[in-house]
Amino acid sequence: MARTDLAIVGAGPAGMAAARVATAHGLAVTVIDEQPRAGGQILRQPPASFRVDRWLADRIYRPQQSLLQQCAGLDGVRWQHATTVLGSELTGDGITLSLNTPGGVDELRAERLLLATGCHDMPVTFPGSTLPGVMATGGIQAFVKSQQIVPGERFVFSGSHPLQLIVADQILQAGGEVAAVLFSQPRSLFWRLLRQSPVLLRYPAKLLYFTRACARLMRRGVAIQFGRVASSAHGEGRLQRVEIADSGTLEARDTIACDRLGIGFGFLSNSQLASQAGLECHWSDSAGGWLARTDEWMRGSLPGVYVAGELTGIGGADVSQREGEIAGLAAAMDAGVLAPGVAAERARPARRALRPLYRFADVLSAMSHPGAALLRALMTRESTLCKCEEVTVGTVRALLDENPFTADLNALKLQSRCGMGMCQGRYCQYQLRTLLHSQRPDLATGDDGFQARFPVKPVSIGALATTPTPEEQ
Amino acid sequence: MHCDALVIGGGLAGCATACYLAEAGLSVVLLERGEINRGASGQNAGSLHFQLEHRLIHHADALGEELQHYVALTRVAIDHWRNIESELGSELELAMHGGLMLAETDDEIALLERKAGIERGQGLEVELLDADETRARAPYLSPQVRGALYCPHEGHCNPRLLTPAYARKAARLGAEIVTHCTVGETRRQGGQWQVRGEDSRGTRREWRASVLVNAAGAWTMDIGRMANLHLPVFPIGLLMNATERAAPFIHHLIQHVGRRLSMKQVDDGNVLIGGGWSARLPQQLGQWGAGRAAIDMTALRNNLRTALAVAPGIEPLKILRSWTGITGITPDQLPLIGAVSRAPGYFVAAGGSGFTYGPTYARLLSELITRGEPSHSLAPYSPDRFAHMNMFMG
Amino acid sequence: MASRIEQGVQRGPQITLTVDGERVAAWAGESLATLLLLRDRSAFYRTRGGAPRAPFCNMGTCFECRVHVAGRGWVLACMSPAEDGMEVTTGETLPRIEVGDGAH
């Protein structure tokens, strides 16, 4: 079994920053990531054999671009790409990770573990949400950034997150057509927040980036509509048109022909490994769903386990990078190779940078959340709540009516099959929770999430069964 | 608050007992610490195994005559399962297409023959199959399988659905189901049981009942202690695995006479693999702690290897999740069902293949409570067989 | 239908694979999801209820882009680079288990 001082799950900004810092203090580091190259979703790199001119050249990507370059030159870090962590087992004397690698299932023994697993686009349930052609806005963006394709012809974006503007702009620049960008919030909300939140003005580069995207979209005649939402998706076996409605009343206003609908209502943390390990988590409606609790050194609730980046609360790449630095210092300090006083000193710049970044992230999360009322209204009876097990909203509502004593998410999962399929609840937990809370307003039970199980992603019986047991190694 | 019967535990035993007691006209309150069906009743793999199991056969000499009683009870349970969907008015994904207990060695074949003798002696239909006959019925089995004992009644039922169906029916019949209520005290006072509980908001409630049923599963011993009773039910952690859905290919319940294996394919297409592989119970300072049992990776691999050895074709199927449950076992492996003589009005329903036999145990226990005599003897399972443990309990 | 961005992009070596029995050229490093969107596939797999499904997240979390690859069973198209000689099938439903030669 391979051994390492610090195993880092996720090669995004948090994981890369932690790897850089920890290895600088002499720790042997292994970074594990599912993608073929480092960078995370923010810098989802093109294949190594591609050459792309001016790839993500805007200055807002600079901190991560420079981190990526530094990481490429690091000794003492083992990068294990195209590898999925299936679960971790904490024993008294370390942590064993089970890895699904291209060569089979393998184990890695780590003294310490950093979960920097990032986030994914928040799924939203509405009629037609499972139709081919309905895609996560972040997923569309990754096709452009990494694969260098325009993944459709005519796009509509519907959501509540400003990222929509960036992706719509990237699609336009890459030669796609953008029929509309819809924000469920009223336009006045954005103006009000701009006026009331001076922290936004501390980051002019970010504001400028959004403003430019907005200006380019408007120049090309793209309709940016506020208080509107794609309320249903239609087509024969694939997306052909979406219905646009008032986001307050869901009254239909328009129908737009398109072959891609981007859904951009913000992000949910990838919390499955944290849950499987048994880390203490708390719920946030607007900042990413289940989030791991940490102390000021990014230590999670279990000994030897650290958490950084989106899994502590959606905050963006700059927050992730700074948290990763602190986690890297903490791992070195706890390993005894860095004196606490020195660690505190070295963490100071990151902490100073984080204070306003957290305030910025809070404003962005609050501004970008669609609100429970809209999410509930979009969930019509016939829409598919659990796409893997094909369970409709109506079925779950009926179960809740028939079983008045069912009042927690895991019990509802067990009864409804929601969350028991291939994605293991990543794409229905938020909606199921919204539904449960709306039908059980007096819910007094503990805030219990889906219990993530080993393996956090499916793996073949053959691969699992052939891994040598400790006695056989 | 006063009621006729108070049931502690919202698992299968508790919900089914509450249902049958309510059906007999008693006023019933059921108290559950968490949610209905969240313990072993909902976490087990739903096998209906009527053949003597691996764990019992291997202790056949020690168990002796008790095994014959057990097989006799099996026949009652089979009839009960055949009617359970209509009885409860719910679809339960019940399948009784038969089960195969596999053998790979001469010794195992001999064991099957001996087992068949005991089972037939009590009128349980079983059929000994040779290798070709076995594979004719289950072509996915490996050539290593030398034979099998076939029981036409075995199968599976969806454990996610059964206990909630009992709870719904109990509620329809007037039983009050109180979830998120932790029992803190059970006391005998003035010829009645006085029970105190506290809900998740910290509100205390109190009930008085002539009958108290301890159906707390792996926590039977903890609840028993509140009445100054030793009820020997010990927690064990077990492992189960579910694959992705596949086109139907396993039509029977598959077990193994010499190895720990149970395997079946449910209506939804998932293959469930278990068979008694252990999971590590949570420990705190030498006590069993709260929380779920942890997966033992070696047990997991060995469980899957056992399944692969008899059904090599499952190799590409993906495991969706492995999970653990905590169930209870008694010192002699037989269930603990009936009245506790030294504590009038105190009844227990715990241990011993609680899913396959749960509905039947509950019905017989409710007959014992309401009529004083069950329609099939529960004598071999009486808690009084451990009365010596309570001799000194004051 | 999806299209490749040509301006400012140089792609490396070309490879050949088959999609639903048809020979298809791709650039090394392109994911199966990319390739199938370029071929205008909408049913990457079909649910048990027969509904077509296609990529949603493009990052290995939603499991909606499952396709069948000969010798490997299903894979996530968004996480799987196209490889020379690969045989990809779309629109499959449930995995089928080889049941061996049984008693014959």
How would you describe this structure to a colleague?
The complex is a heterotrimer of chains A (473), B (394) and C (104). The relative contact order of chain A is 0.14. In chain A, the strands form 6 sheets. In chain A, strands 1, 2, 4, 5, 6, 7 and 21 form a 7-stranded mixed beta sheet that branches. Chain A folds into 3 domains: 217 residues, FAD/NAD(P)-binding domain (3-Layer(bba) Sandwich); 143 residues, FAD/NAD(P)-binding domain (3-Layer(bba) Sandwich), CATH 3.50.50.60; 61 residues, Arc Repressor Mutant, subunit A, CATH 1.10.10. Chain A is 35% helix and 25% strand. Chain A has 473 residues and is of the alpha/beta class. With 394 residues, chain B is of the alpha+beta class. Chain B folds into 2 domains: 174 residues, FAD/NAD(P)-binding domain, CATH 3.50.50.60; 170 residues, D-Amino Acid Oxidase, Chain A, domain 2 (2-Layer Sandwich). Helix content of chain B is 30%, strand content 28%. Chain C has a domain of 58 residues. In chain C, a hairpin with a 5-residue loop joins strand 5 and strand 6. Chain C is globular and about 50 Å long. With 104 residues, chain C is mainly β. The longest helix of chain C has 7 residues. Chain C contains 1 helix and 9 strands; from the N terminus they run ββββαβββββ. The mean pLDDT of chain C is 93. The interface between A and C is large, with 54 and 45 residues.
In terms of topology, how is this protein built?
The complex is a heterotrimer of chains A (473), B (394) and C (104).
Chain A: E1 2-9, H1 13-24, E2 29-32, E3 51-52, H2 62-72, E4 77-80, E5 84-91, E6 94-101, E7 104-115, E8 119-121, E9 134-136, H3 137-147, E10 149-150, E11 154-159, H4 163-173, E12 177-183, H5 187-196, H6 204-219, E13 223-226, E14 228-234, E15 241-246, E16 252-257, E17 260-264, E18 267-269, H7 272-277, E19 281-284, E20 289-292, E21 305-307, H8 317-334, H9 340-368, H10 372-378, E22 384-386, E23 391-392, H11 393-402, H12 409-416, H13 429-439, E24 459-460, H14 461-466
Parallel strand pairs in A: 1-2, 1-7, 2-4, 7-21, 9-17, 11-12, 11-17, 12-13
Antiparallel strand pairs in A: 5-6, 6-7, 8-18, 14-15, 15-16, 19-20, 22-23
Helix pairs in contact in A: 1-2, 1-8, 3-4, 4-6, 8-9, 11-13
Chain B: E1 2-8, H1 12-23, E2 28-31, H2 40-43, E3 47-48, H3 54-57, H4 60-63, H5 65-88, E4 99-103, H6 106-121, E5 127-130, H7 131-137, E6 147-151, E7 155-156, H8 159-172, E8 176-178, E9 181-189, E10 192-199, E11 204-214, H9 220-225, E12 234-245, E13 253-256, E14 262-265, E15 270-274, E16 278-279, E17 283-284, E18 287-288, H10 297-310, E19 318-329, E20 336-339, E21 346-350, H11 358-371
Parallel strand pairs in B: 1-2, 1-11, 2-8, 4-13, 11-21
Antiparallel strand pairs in B: 3-7, 4-6, 5-6, 9-10, 10-11, 12-15, 12-16, 12-19, 13-14, 14-15, 17-18, 20-21
Chain C: E1 3-4, E2 9-10, E3 14-19, E4 22-27, H1 32-38, E5 45-46, E6 52-53, E7 66-69, E8 73-76, E9 87-89
Parallel strand pairs in C: 3-9
Antiparallel strand pairs in C: 3-4, 5-6, 7-8, 7-9
